[in-house]
Amino acid sequence: MAQFYSPKSKKTKTLPQIIEVEASALDHQGNAVASHEGKVIFVPGLLPGESARVQLEKSKHRFAEGKVVKRLRDHPQRVKPHCSHFDRCGGCQLQYATAQAQREWKQAALLTLLSHRGGQSESEMTKGLAEPLSGPQWHYRRRARIGARVVRGQLLLGFRQRGSNRLLDIDQCPVLAEPLNALLPKLRQQLGTMALAGDIGHVDLVLAHEGPVVVLRVLAPVSKTQRRVLKEWAEKAGCQLLLHTDEGLETLTGAVPSALHYEIGQTASGEPRPMPAFLPGDFVQINDSVNRQMIDQAIEWLQPQPEETGLDLFCGGGNFSFALASLSKHLVGVEGVASMVERASARATELALTNCTFYCADLNGDLPDEAWAQRVDWLLLDPARAGAFGVLPWIPKLAPKRILYISCDPMSLAKDARVLTEQGYEMIRLGLVDMFPHTHHLESMALFVPRSRGKRRA
Ligand SMILES: C[S@@+](CC[C@H](N)C(=O)[O-])C[C@H]1O[C@@H](n2cnc3c(N)ncnc32)[C@H](O)[C@@H]1O
């Protein structure tokens, strides 16, 4: 008998185009969550407790997305966005709520996600919940990549517009560290007058211990005269200026720094901790104040002991490694970017940190047959957004007694927490890390220990 293909009918509930909803929470991407006739509706721009008339934009079987047409009731924590570019800039999403309320809702979203997707018990997580780590709500960003484009003869400098690839020209950014924010109008004034403007791909702004650094990504040769003009400008503006050409980095204000540095807080006895080294282009935690607190909390939660060996996976340039090494017998840091590993190793030698070794490896590959990939006392995981899925199969062999997971993506944390739980670990501490106030980014730290051990501690 002939078989006829008949597509499975997707029972998509038809909803009216405009509905009224009341939001009950924010999801982990900063969208309000509401419900209507049994369907979940995600609405950007609304806050929990607020009601609004909403236009449905995408309607799937179990959920829909809507756009606020008119807010009918505002939350008392709703505030006027501080930045004049907020309505159009894609950089921040949540400036219409107080920073305190953002943290409360992000924390609630984290708990919901970890219980729904990560198989964690909400009451157990609440028992081990730490106060969120937070710093100044403005001027916290110590690095940013600013897009550059010439449109109708005028240089635009800024971020992408919300929901678009187009560049929004900005004259200030209140989340940028003050010295970098102050450079924005000066940069525009100088570059805007130069023929070079059209050949600039982007501008990296970095605030290092050594001061503000500007890196111009240039896509064409830069003449001697242009170099002289830029050098004079940088000296006047009080920043280091580097050109990033196809050949690499070149500085216009002296020798190319072999490395810049950043501070990571103080030891328990009040001594400054050894500063990691980096170059523009390396990963660096964006928020200085929150980073220092993360390092303090990592030490408090991991409790490294002088006779113990620790493994810092996804170690970057040694942000956590240098602080933890001095409290441990031996520390191994592993990172995938070879140049960062070289910088971390060179810095360890410079600091005479002889118990600290760095290796380069792809942590999504098989467990390397290396001396370092053996039993350790504790493990720190600080993966990129994709999570630590590649490392999790190694955990039984490494058999750490404590695992500290630093997460920049709650979905990955939820997935990885589920695996760790299946491997016999339990999450005994959890805390929000407010690394990026006013944005939807949700960072967190979680501490896992073998289950029986955790029970004894509880
Ligand atoms: C979130 S950053 C953390 C870096 C460092 N712990 C810090 O606090 O500055 C993640 C790091 O993982 C590295 N990374 C990403 N994927 C990797 C992989 N497959 N193998 C090894 N390292 C990787 C990145 O280069 C980056 O340095």
TrEMBL record:
<feature type="binding site">
    <location>
        <position position="382"/>
    </location>
    <ligand>
        <name>S-adenosyl-L-methionine</name>
    </ligand>
</feature>
<comment type="function">
    <text>Catalyzes the formation of 5-methyl-uridine at position 1939 (m5U1939) in 23S rRNA.</text>
</comment>
<keyword id="KW-0408">Iron</keyword>
<feature type="binding site">
    <location>
        <position position="173"/>
    </location>
    <ligand>
        <name>[4Fe-4S] cluster</name>
    </ligand>
</feature>
<feature type="binding site">
    <location>
        <position position="83"/>
    </location>
    <ligand>
        <name>[4Fe-4S] cluster</name>
    </ligand>
</feature>
<dbReference type="InterPro" id="IPR030390">
    <property type="entry name" value="MeTrfase_TrmA_AS"/>
</dbReference>
<feature type="binding site">
    <location>
        <position position="285"/>
    </location>
    <ligand>
        <name>S-adenosyl-L-methionine</name>
    </ligand>
</feature>
<feature type="binding site">
    <location>
        <position position="362"/>
    </location>
    <ligand>
        <name>S-adenosyl-L-methionine</name>
    </ligand>
</feature>
<keyword id="KW-0808">Transferase</keyword>
<dbReference type="InterPro" id="IPR001566">
    <property type="entry name" value="23S_rRNA_MeTrfase_RlmD"/>
</dbReference>
<feature type="binding site">
    <location>
        <position position="319"/>
    </location>
    <ligand>
        <name>S-adenosyl-L-methionine</name>
    </ligand>
</feature>
<dbReference type="InterPro" id="IPR002792">
    <property type="entry name" value="TRAM_dom"/>
</dbReference>
<protein>
    <recommendedName>
        <fullName>23S rRNA (uracil(1939)-C(5))-methyltransferase RlmD</fullName>
        <ecNumber>2.1.1.190</ecNumber>
    </recommendedName>
</protein>
<dbReference type="InterPro" id="IPR030391">
    <property type="entry name" value="MeTrfase_TrmA_CS"/>
</dbReference>
<dbReference type="Pfam" id="PF13847">
    <property type="entry name" value="Methyltransf_31"/>
</dbReference>
<keyword id="KW-0004">4Fe-4S</keyword>
<dbReference type="InterPro" id="IPR029063">
    <property type="entry name" value="SAM-dependent_MTases_sf"/>
</dbReference>
<keyword id="KW-0698">rRNA processing</keyword>
<comment type="similarity">
    <text>Belongs to the class I-like SAM-binding methyltransferase superfamily. RNA M5U methyltransferase family. RlmD subfamily.</text>
</comment>
<dbReference type="InterPro" id="IPR010280">
    <property type="entry name" value="U5_MeTrfase_fam"/>
</dbReference>
<keyword id="KW-0489">Methyltransferase</keyword>
<feature type="active site">
    <location>
        <position position="408"/>
    </location>
</feature>
<keyword id="KW-0411">Iron-sulfur</keyword>
<feature type="domain" description="TRAM">
    <location>
        <begin position="12"/>
        <end position="70"/>
    </location>
</feature>
<feature type="binding site">
    <location>
        <position position="335"/>
    </location>
    <ligand>
        <name>S-adenosyl-L-methionine</name>
    </ligand>
</feature>
<dbReference type="InterPro" id="IPR012340">
    <property type="entry name" value="NA-bd_OB-fold"/>
</dbReference>
<dbReference type="InterPro" id="IPR025714">
    <property type="entry name" value="Methyltranfer_dom"/>
</dbReference>
<feature type="binding site">
    <location>
        <position position="89"/>
    </location>
    <ligand>
        <name>[4Fe-4S] cluster</name>
    </ligand>
</feature>
<keyword id="KW-0479">Metal-binding</keyword>
<dbReference type="Pfam" id="PF01938">
    <property type="entry name" value="TRAM"/>
</dbReference>
<keyword id="KW-0949">S-adenosyl-L-methionine</keyword>
<feature type="binding site">
    <location>
        <position position="314"/>
    </location>
    <ligand>
        <name>S-adenosyl-L-methionine</name>
    </ligand>
</feature>
<feature type="active site" description="Nucleophile">
    <location>
        <position position="408"/>
    </location>
</feature>
<feature type="binding site">
    <location>
        <position position="92"/>
    </location>
    <ligand>
        <name>[4Fe-4S] cluster</name>
    </ligand>
</feature>
